[in-house]
Design a protein that fits this description.
Layout lengths: L2 H18 L1 E7 L17 E2 L2 E2 H11 L4 E6 L3 H11 L4 E4 L6 H15 L4 E6 L2 E3 L1 H13 L4 E5 L12 E4 L5 E5 L1 H20 L2 E2 H11 L3 H7 L1 H7 L4 E2 L1 H14 L1 E2 L2 E2 L2 H7 L2 E2 L3 E4 L1 H9 L14 H8 L11 E5 L6 E3 L3 H14 L21 E2 H10 L2 H11 L3 H22 L4 E14 L9 E17 L4 E6 L8 E4 H5 L7 H5 L2 H8 L6 H14 L8 E7 L9 H16 L6 H11 L10 H8 L4 E6 L4 E7 L4 E7 L10 H22 L1 H4 L10 H4 L3 H8 L8 H7 L5 H9 L9 H23 L3 H15 L2 E3 L5 E3 L6 H11 L4 H6 L14 H11 L4 E6 L7 E7 L3 H16 L5 E3 L2 E2 L3 E2 L3
Parallel strand pairs: 1-4, 1-6, 4-5, 8-17, 22-24
Antiparallel strand pairs: 2-3, 6-16, 7-18, 8-16, 9-10, 9-15, 11-12, 13-14, 19-20, 20-21, 20-34, 21-24, 21-25, 21-33, 22-23, 25-26, 27-31, 27-32, 28-29, 30-31
Helix pairs in contact: 1-5, 4-12, 6-7, 6-10, 7-9, 12-13, 15-17, 21-22, 21-23, 22-23, 22-24, 23-24, 25-30, 25-31, 28-33, 31-32, 35-36
């Protein structure tokens, strides 16, 4: 055996000895509320087709561990059933009530003591993806550093920097404490309090409230972390300085270790790594550490992370540290990944898919589609399945659409119609996949996804269906079930992409060649198919994307604000990805869709595509952008239904109206640039419009209004070119290139709309979760007023209006905030300001007002990007027919229009048909 091999084997031998002497304690008692499943414990969710808890035990067993103790609590029976099926020798301890990870560890220690176990204890969490190399690193560090406790630490990432605690390590290598985000915020607040008390003497409740919000914006965390200070902040007048100083001292004392007090700067310098929660203890250290844990906190919970602090401070008889607590750094955070929400679990799944060795080329392959039999069959086989109506079809229909028999029948007819269309054009013996992409409704958060805001969407039962087969060349050939309205489409990916070698997608779509091509095919549905596959090919230039045959049907109303065009993009991209064996993360997919649709001339974000792709049945998804993330999934209001009503005013993005849409984007881009230029105090901290938030910036709302006064309400192109500095030259040119010059721009009104809408979208979650639907409906009305362009006069006729964003109006808001009149102060809050985005129409405004007057309607507003299309109405289920009658009587019948009022069902997001 070569010398290098012997050396490589030595750690493994040592590690295997430790494994034999160690029990693995897995904490698996958590509820996993954010996962959105009441029937499944969080640790039982699959990672690459294996329950997370079982996958983790497999990894430990492969490294020689044989003793396992699981602490279970919420959904304990399901967890035990899942584990015992594969690992019958595992022991369990039941945690009831669940009083935190430290409490779970105490129960484990008691059980091990009862068993008479005297060995090492490795503690991990059940909701982890763990690679063997992470275990090897932990065991190696444990041995080499002769640790009594070793904890794995990883560099912070964007995804984990706020969710994982930072590990404080002194110059001797001793880990002193694990500092959670709330811990660090407390110290930051304490230092700021001391500084402000020293300079001002006394502070008001409002000032303290702003200070808390600046360092800890999350209101839920505030109550847990700084409760005593919050109580003092309720005071209207000055607060007793000694009370504030006492709180500050208490929080600062918490950061005292071995008689040394650590400040914010020192902590930042000494806590470069985060804690992914993988610990290894010697017997005595584990027993002593968990024994010292207490629940002397507002939550009455025990925290395992406090073990580090207790062990680090323990002294031996000689006054020296009794325990060696050592951090084991690894530079690969992907080796250990946790999940608390569906999007975090998706990130792990995507990581694993990317790790798998590719059968063909780097990102995709020209091999046979790697799809399951229930996803890929001949056209004839699909039709036979539908005709036979076996159980798998019913299960799939219920999973996607819920228990709606009439809807099931309609969907099967739609599938059969698209399959027959494909068969007639391309052959019934051709193997195909079927993709469905539903329309979407965004309940709150309009026009702000591309500003870093959030949306609150649900997918609806109107959808596009695409039957797709793989070709042996690079051509895309598409037919529609309505050939009279939608002519056949055919193009070569290579011929379009091959004409130019642009490295940048925006440069490509701005090229004269693409603009001429689009100008000659305005409104052609094939442009959206090109948007999808050309963006995919541009993203992976080293891989030749094979062409596809498509047969498409759909019932999403066109140009109605329900994203019919985006459903085409999503369906085409998903078909191309599936048939070409690409593996993309959810974020990559959504981003490609959003950027792809720029091809047709719009410059919006990816919010519509995220809604279409990630929707869940009977759920509302709260999604954030820049970066893309699913922040929360919540139940749709049970007693309410979303109703869609079509104005029959077409919102044609591919025609002249796209210039107005893109002018609003220019208002955003150039308005924010001007605001930062004229308010240099925020230039370094405001990256996106979402950052202009009193909580984040630690400023009063009135300051936001004063900043907006520095941006003119009305500007022309020459004004922007004159006032913006040279560094913005490229931004100005790019912004103007996307649209024809309007008479004027409205940067202040658009900025105010966006800032307020982002706040409304965040507030919406709490209102919906707590059942305060009428308050949510009020936000809908305010939001629509931001797009409103008309109001009725005394004679009932609608006349043009503009929302007031003048200097006088903003100054009145500032006065109202200072008035101490509760109603004036409430009405002057940022989230209650409509701003002026002005993308409605008089017809839409009339419909919103008609619907809003119906008893049982919580709220109504424009749906989609605007300039026509539909309105959405949130109404009690018993009021839906009243809404329909009112719109027919007061809008459709007087205008001689066909009634188009649809009560929507929330369905699953886009995906492959599987039965």
């Amino acid at each position: 055996m070569a010398k290098s091999q012997v050396q490589a084997d030595q750690p493994a031998v040592a590690n295997s000895q430790i494994a034999r002497d160690t029990v693995v304690v897995v904490l698996a008692a958590g509820k996993g509320t954010r996962m959105g499943r009441n029937d499944l414990g969080k640790v039982c969710f699959d990672i690459d087709a294996v329950p997370a808890i079982n996958r983790q035990i497999r990894v430990f067993q492969a490294r020689g561990f044989s003793r396992f103790l699981l602490v279970v609590g919420a959904r304990a029976e399901k967890v035990m059933e899942t584990v015992t099926r594969e690992f019958p020798g595992v022991f369990y301890v039941h945690q009831e009530p669940q009083l935190g990870t430290g409490h779970a560890a105490k129960l484990a220690a008691e059980a091990l003591d009862a068993f008479g176990f005297r060995g090492n204890v490795l503690v991990t969490m059940g909701d982890k993806y763990l690679e063997p190399t992470a275990i090897d690193a932990l065991l190696g560090g444990f041995i080499k550093q002769q640790a009594d406790m070793a904890l794995l630490v990883v560099p912070p990432s964007r995804a984990t920097q706020d969710s994982m605690g930072r590990v404080l390590i002194n110059g001797d290598g001793q880990a002193l404490a694990i500092l959670e985000r709330t811990d660090r915020a407390r110290l930051e607040i304490a230092e700021a309090l001391d500084e402000m008390l020293a300079t001002r003497g006394r502070l008001t409740g409002a000032t303290v409230r702003q200070l808390i919000d600046a360092h800890l914006p999350d209101r839920k965390r505030q109550a847990r972390a700084v409760g005593p200070l919050l109580e003092l902040a309720e005071c209207e007048g000055p607060i007793d300085a000694e009370k504030l100083a006492a709180i500050s001292r208490q929080w600062r004392d918490w950061f005292e270790v071995d008689g040394k007090r650590y400040g914010v700067r020192q902590i930042r310098r000494l806590s470069k790594y985060t804690n992914p929660s993988l610990y290894l203890f010697r017997d005595e250290a584990f027993s002593e550490g968990v024994r010292r844990l207490d629940n002397d906190n507002a939550q009455g919970e025990y925290y395992l992370t406090d073990v580090v602090r207790h062990l680090a401070q323990a002294k031996g008889p000689d006054g020296r540290p009794r325990f060696r607590v050592r951090a084991v750094p690894v530079e690969h955070p992907e080796w250990i990944q946790g999940f608390n929400s569906p999007d975090e679990l998706l990130a792990i799944q995507d990581y694993l898919r990317r790790k798998k060795p590719a059968a063909g080329q780097a990102a995709g392959t020209a091999a046979r589609p790697q799809l399951k039999p229930n996803q890929y069959a001949t056209v004839q086989q699909w039709l036979q399945k539908i005709q036979q109506g076996r159980g798998s079809i019913g299960r799939w229909l219920r999973r996607i659409y819920g228990d709606h028999a009439d809807l099931h029948e309609a969907k099967l007819r739609d599938l059969a119609r698209a399959l027959e269309c494909y068969g007639r054009r391309f052959g019934f013996e051709e193997k195909v996949a079927i993709v469905r992409a539903p329309g979407r409704v965004n309940l709150m958060g309009r026009h702000v996804d591309h500003r870093g805001g959030t949306t609150n969407f649900l997918a609806i039962d109107r959808e596009t269906v695409a039957v797709a087969g793989l070709r042996q060349d690079d051509r895309v050939v598409a037919v529609n079930v309505e050939p009279a309205r939608f002519k056949p489409v055919e193009f070569s990916i290579g011929e379009v992409m091959g004409r130019f070698a642009f490295s940048d997608w925006l440069n490509f779509i701005e090229s004269p060649w693409v603009k001429d091509m689009l100008r000659n095919a305005v409104g052609n549905w094939g442009n959206y198919l090109k948007a999808a596959v050309l963006r995919l090919q541009h993203r992976y230039p080293e891989v030749k994307v094979q062409g596809i045959n498509l047969a498409v049907s759909g019932n999403v109303p066109m140009a109605a604000g329900l994203s019919s065009s985006s459903t085409l993009v999503v369906a085409a991209l998903q078909a191309a990805i599936a048939l070409n064996n690409f593996e993309l993360t959810s974020q990559q997919f959504v981003d490609l869709c959003g950027e792809g649709e720029w091809f047709v001339g719009s410059r919006g974000g990816a919010g519509d595509h995220a809604a279409i792709y990630l929707g869940q049945r009977n759920k509302i998804a709260h999604v954030g952008y820049l970066p893309f993330r699913v922040e929360k999934t919540l139940d749709a209001p049970r007693d309410y239904q979303v109703v869609i009503a079509n104005s029959h005013i077409r919102a044609a993005k591919s025609a002249g109206s796209k210039h107005q849409f893109n002018a609003r984007i220019a208002d955003y881009n150039l308005g924010l640039a001007l605001l930062k230029q004229r308010c240099p105090e925020i230039a370094g901290v405001v990256e996106y419009l979402r950052d202009i938030d009193p909580e984040k910036l630690g400023c009063p709302t009135s300051t936001i209004y004063r900043w907006l006064l520095k941006v003119p309400a009305v500007m022309r192109r020459k004004d922007f070119q004159t006032v913006l500095s040279r560094e913005h030259r490229d931004l100005v040119a790019a912004s103007f290139a996307s649209h024809d010059e309007p008479a004027v721009y409205h940067p202040r009104g658009v900025l105010l709309f966006g800032i307020a809408e982002i706040l409304r979208s965040r507030l919406a979650v709490g209102l919906l979760e707590s059942g305060r639907i009428e308050e949510f409906g009020q936000l809908m009305r305010i939001s629509h007023d931001g797009d409103r362009v008309s109001r009725p006069g005394m004679d009932g006729n609608y006349r043009p209006v503009e929302e007031d964003t003048s200097d006088a109006h903003l100054n009145r808001l500032i006065e109202d905030l200072a008035s101490e009149d509760p109603q004036r102060v409430l009405d002057a809050q940022l989230y209650r300001q409509p701003g002026s985005y002005a993308c409605s129409t008089p017809e839409i405004d009339r419909m919103v007002d008609i619907a809003s007057r119906v008893p049982g309607v919580a709220g109504a507003q424009i749906a989609g990007a605007g300039l026509g299309g539909c309105i959405m109405i949130l109404a009690r289920k018993e009021a839906v027919q009243r809404v329909r009658r009112a719109l027919v009587r007061d809008y459709y019948k007087p205008a001689g229009l066909k009634p188009a009022v649809l009560a929507c069902t929330a369905v699953e997001g886009a995906g492959l048909v599987e039965f």
